[in-house]
Specification:
single chain, 8-stranded mixed beta sheet
Amino acid sequence: MKKETVYKIFSNIPTLHTERLSLRPMHPIDAEDMFSYAKREDVTEYLLWSPHPSVNYTADYLRYIQSRYALGDFYDWAIIDRESRRMIGTCGFTKINTDNDSGEIGYVLNPDFWGRGYAAEAAKRVMEFGFCELGLHRIEARFMQGNERSLRVMEKLGMSFEGYHVDEIFVKGAYRTVGICAAVCHKTAK
């Protein structure tokens, strides 16, 4: 896969659907919904970013994301609960390695929706898109040690646990150990 192909696809990021969810581009009108979870310490405890300080900060972030979508170098969708029509989180690729046909997925979900299988449902659809539409061979996901919820999502996705990288990252004043899970597409090589 070529970088240009990825840029072309994500500069007009498609909307994806599951039984209960729609995955669509994020918009500034999502600021209130995103801020409702992005401001929470329990949401950001195992993430690289800190809680959003205000709804204006969230709105500015979402406006910035529009420029990244236009360039085709941002690969994250808003997770929309089709029943309530609320943005309840995000899911997508944190990176895509075109040289090796691999990607890394990530997801964040509003705690009001934890425990209902939404994260796995969204991530499964993103993985299907990665394998079938992007032609990826390998998709991995990372989690900070202690984030058992995220590990359970990865297990539900059929990903294999590959191990820990001890003190791999320095975030929020501490070194954190990171676990890696992955899945591969077993089609024949190019």
